[in-house]
Write a structure and sequence with these properties.
452 residues, alpha+beta, 11-stranded mixed sheet, 3-stranded mixed sheet, 18 helices, globular
């Protein structure tokens, strides 16, 4: 028989950061960013739709005008650039007092592409983030990415969300999920039964089955926990989740070679799945953090993200029940995504943005758990409370999407997935390494520079 998958139309994490942090653009441009970034549109009701050619043309035009060239001293690639939280806080206070826009370089955190180190300097009352960096421009989705590496840069907006949710993230997971409704599952089962009866007596075209399944399942629900659903951080989670499903189900080709979709693996393996609903989700993939003896130098290690899988099961009422181990094809696809994640993130900004968001959430958890603000004698009222964070239409639902592959005698359906992580669990795993104390010493700065 045939296999069906229903997913959701891609909500790209790509948001034009110039708008996300309050840059004054015309209302029509803001509407483009709200509704048509990254290959989808989202309306005021939170409903996603595919973008039109006009949307794409408007976004292409926006790429030419919505971002300034990075300052000359930020253009070149560097393995290690430092950014001062104390001085960023001062700049936010200055902008608020004088009614000025936040400088673009501040909004892009001087082009940092990952947080590798967190250094505390009690002598200057500062906490410094450090990692690889370079100048930036916008990619085809509207994400700010490195000019040569094409990896997404960190956003001040995401850092502020991470800091403001740092206490809640101790107990509540930061997550997103795209799931069918219980009513939709029940309707789908009825539609599948009817399709089997028809298929036994006559020949029907797959597109007719596809349409009937999509109609039966109806809109799927998008849920976000741990961060504001209207934030760029939340959109980053949803985008990576759905992009993962697009790659798995071959709705879009992988941007790197030798990465077959789950459908291809299913076709090549008759034992590819055990039940009707394999499920994938993205989770943290960090090694234990390094710290020096004094707790003034910290290093984040590891690729950051991995793909997990299991099989979803639903009861007669359409509600999810305890899941089981996934089949061979689902496990192989998850392992391949995990093994290739660093490479994939360099070619698909949705995955790179997710890793950036996870890094920042881990940093915020570390700051709270280890009392780094008190250790540094630093206060961040603007970053943690008063500085405005952009709000966008919160994603709430997406249309279902179906594709087919033959698998034995049964219809096999996959419908759910997400992103889930507890940053405090990452911050809990620590190993002492006094070598990073020397990096902290070498990177120390005097004066009022906010990056170096």
């Amino acid at each position: 028989m045939t296999r069906a998958f229903f997913g959701s139309r891609l909500l790209c994490a790509a948001l034009i950061a110039t708008v996300a942090t309050g840059f004054s653009l015309q209302q029509s441009t803001a509407q483009i960013v709200q509704q048509a970034v990254g290959g989808v549109a989202i309306d005021a009701d939170g409903v996603l739709r595919a973008t039109t050619q006009a949307d794409a043309a408007a976004l292409a035009e926006l790429r030419l005008t919505a971002i300034d060239k990075a300052p000359a001293d930020l253009q070149a690639w560097t393995d290690l650039r430092a950014v001062s939280l104390k001085q960023i806080e001062a700049k936010l206070a200055e902008c608020a007092a004088e009614g000025k826009e936040i400088p673009e370089a501040v909004r892009y955190l001087a082009g940092l592409q990952r947080v590798q180190y967190v250094f505390v300097y009690p002598e200057s009352n500062d906490i410094v983030l450090a990692g690889p960096a370079e100048g930036w421009d916008l990619d085809e989705h509207g994400n700010a990415v490195g000019a040569t590496s094409r990896r997404p840069v960190l956003l001040l907006d995401d850092l502020m969300v991470a800091l403001r949710t740092r206490e809640a993230s101790r107990l509540e997971a930061i997550s997103c999920s795209i799931d069918p409704t219980a009513e939709g599952i029940q309707r789908l089962r009825s539609a599948m039964t009817r399709a089997k009866r028809i298929a036994n007596s006559t020949t029907i075209q797959s597109h007719a089955i596809k349409h009937s399944y999509e109609q039966a399942l109806g809109p799927q629900t998008i849920s976000v926990t741990g961060v504001p659903a209207t934030s760029h951080f939340a959109r980053t989670l949803v985008a990576a989740d759905f992009r993962m499903k697009q790659l798995a189900m071959n709705f879009q080709p992988a941007p790197i070679g030798d990465m077959p979709s789950f459908l291809h693996l299913m076709k090549a393996n008759s034992r590819g799945t055990k039940s009707m609903m394999p499920r994938w989700w993205l989770a943290p993939n960090y090694e234990p953090m390094s710290r020096d003896a004094e707790g003034l130098a910290w290093e984040l290690r590891g690729p950051g993200v991995q793909c997990m899988t299991e099989e979803d099961h639903f009861d007669a009422a359409g509600k999810r029940v305890a899941s089981k181990k996934a089949g061979n094809a689902a496990q192989r696809w998850a392992k391949n995504l995990t093994d290739r994640y660093t490479e994939l993130a360099q070619h698909d900004s949705a995955f790179g943005m997710l890793r950036n968001a996870m890094d920042l959430a881990v940093v915020a958890a570390l700051v709270e758990k280890e009392g780094l603000l008190g250790l540094a004698g630093l206060e961040l009222p603007n970053m943690m409370q008063t500085a405005p964070i952009a709000e966008y239409h919160a994603p709430t639902q997406v249309d279902s999407k179906v594709s087919f592959v033959k698998q034995g005698r049964n219809w096999v359906v996959s419908a759910s997935g997400g992103v889930q992580f507890l940053p405090w669990l990452v911050a809990d795993k620590v190993e002492q390494n006094d070598e990073i104390a020397s990096v902290r010493k070498q990177l120390s700065s005097t004066g009022d520079r906010w990056y170096w």
